[in-house]
C-alpha cells in the first residue's frame, strides 16, 4: 500500500464550489458549529460529535418534524442509542412535500421496462396516486403499525404503494416477484402482514413470467391477510384481488395526509440473505432512514433537485430502498425492471443516455460483465452523466479502468460499500475527494469507520475487521421478533463490545481511502497469511475463459491444513487443461504461492443468494460435512441446483 496510487478521477474545483457539500460546510461555519477546511476535517467532526452532526443534517435539509426532539443523542452508546427522543415525523411527508424541485409539474419518476414500456409521474401525479392508495389501504383496515407485504417488480405502482404505506405509519416489506413461494413466505410470514401488494407477472430476458400461481400459493401461507391488491404488470387480472386501477378510480381526490410517528417507528423490514436459516427481519425507522438518505443522496452523491438518479436493483435488495430515497432531495428517480443484459449489456447504458441520467448506479459484477464482453462506450453519448456508482461486491481494479476508459475523466467512479443492516454505504464517494484506482474514496460522514486487528486496535495500511465505533441513526431499530435484543447484539456486538463489527475485511490506506477485501467469515488464511476473497476473484475472473468462480479454504479452527479449492465456470469451448496453468502462474505472481489452489474444479454454476451474492460460507460448511439442509436454505438461492456438485463432492 503506497501513497502514490493512480488517481482515476479528480474533483473539478468549479463543481466542488457548486456542490451541496460546500454549501453544507459554509452553513456549518455560519451557524458556528464547525469551520471545516475540507472533507476530512468535516468527517472527523461528524464522528467525534455525532449528536451535533446529525442535528445539523436535520436542520440543513429542513426535516419536517411535527414534534421537535428533546435532544439529538442523549447517550453515545451501541447498541441502544436513542436518536431524537420525543420527535415525530413521517418519511412519506418528507419525500412528497412541495419545494426543492417537487412542484406539481416537476418530474418525480421515470419508469422503463426491458420490453420498451415507458411511463412518467410528476410529483403532482405521484401525490394524487399515493393519496388514493392510502385511502384504499385505510378502507382495507390498514393502520399505524400494520404490515404491508409486497411481491412486486421495480415499478411506479410499487413506489406509490410504499409511500402510501409509510404515510399511514404502517410497515412496508418487499420481495422481487422472482422469489419463490418458500423464499417469500420465509420473509413475510414472520411479520404477519394484513395486505399483500402484488402483480400478475413480470418480463425478464425477453420472456413473460406469470406469477399468479406464486401469489395464490403465498396467500395460503399468510393467514393474517385481509386483502390482496394487484396491478396488471403483464396485462392480466389476479383472481380474488382488489384491482389497482379500480382503487385509484374509487379513491380519486382523496386527501393526502401523513401520520406523525416517533423517530424510531418502523418504516420497513429488510431481510438478511437467509442462506443458513430464516432471514433476519431488519427493522429500520422513519427518522433514521430520512436522515441517512438525505446525507447519502444530498451530500455524498451530491444529488440535486431535478437531477435523474438511477440504480439497477430489484425490490428484494436494499438498493431499491436507497434509490427511492432520491425523492427526499427532490431528484427524479429512474426505475428499471427487467434483465440488465437484455437484449445486450449496452441496454442500461442506452437507458442512461436516453433518460439523461446524472448518477448511474449498478453492481460490480455488471461492470465486470461489460469488461469481459469487450463492450465499449462513447462518453459523448452520455453528456448528463457525472457519476457511476458500484456496489454489491468489491469493484476490481480492471473494473475501475474499464469505467475510466469508457466514460472519460469527468465521470466520478463512485464505488461504495455498506450493507442492508443500515441501508446505506459506510464508505464511498464524496464530491470533493479524488478517486484512486481500486479504492473507495472516504468513510461516509457520520460513519466512524475503522479497521480493527484481532486485539481490537485500529490499524492503518493493514487488513482488519470493518467496524463502526459510533452509532448511526439508520442502524436497526431491532430485528423483527427479537424482543430482548439478543439476536441483534449477537449479530454485531459480540466480538468488540460497544463496537459494530460489520463482517467485512477492510484496509484503511494512509491517505484515508479504503479497500474492501470481501467477507471476513470467508477469508483465505493460508499459512498465517490472510486474504479476502475479492483479491482472488479479481485475478481469476480476469482470465477471458473464466465466467465465474468460487474459492473455498476448507481450513478451520480444528482443521489447520485444509485444501484451497477453486471452482470455475468456464466459457463454452474452454477446457480446464488449457486454463489451469495460466491461473496458477498468475495467482502465484499476483497474490502469493500460498494462495495457489490445491485443486481447480469445473462447475456449471456458482450458487448465489437471491440478491446475487456468492454463497462462500454455506459451501464451506457443506464441504466440512454439515448436512446441506442445515448449511443452507435452498429457497434463499437464485439457483439452488448449483449446490448439487458441492453436495456430491462432500459425500465423497
UniProtKB/TrEMBL annotation:
Residue ranges constituting the AMP-dependent synthetase/ligase domain according to the UniProt record: 107-471
Domain AMP-binding enzyme C-terminal: 539-613
Source taxon at top rank: Bacteria
Sequence ranges assigned to domain Acetyl-coenzyme A synthetase N-terminal in this UniProt record: 39-95
UniProt GO BP: lipid metabolic process
Example GO molecular function: ATP binding
Pfam families: ACAS_N (PF16177), AMP-binding (PF00501), AMP-binding_C (PF13193)
The keyword Nucleotide-binding belongs to this UniProt entry's keyword annotation: yes
SUPFAM superfamilies: Acetyl-CoA synthetase-like (SSF56801)
Keywords for this protein: ATP-binding, Ligase, Nucleotide-binding
PANTHER family attached to this UniProt entry: ACETOACETYL-COA SYNTHETASE (PTHR42921:SF1)
Family named by the database record: Belongs to the ATP-dependent AMP-binding enzyme family.
NCBIfam families documented for this protein: ac_ac_CoA_syn, PRK03584.1
Name the UniProt record assigns to this protein: Acetoacetate--CoA ligase
Species in which this protein is naturally found: Jiangella anatolica
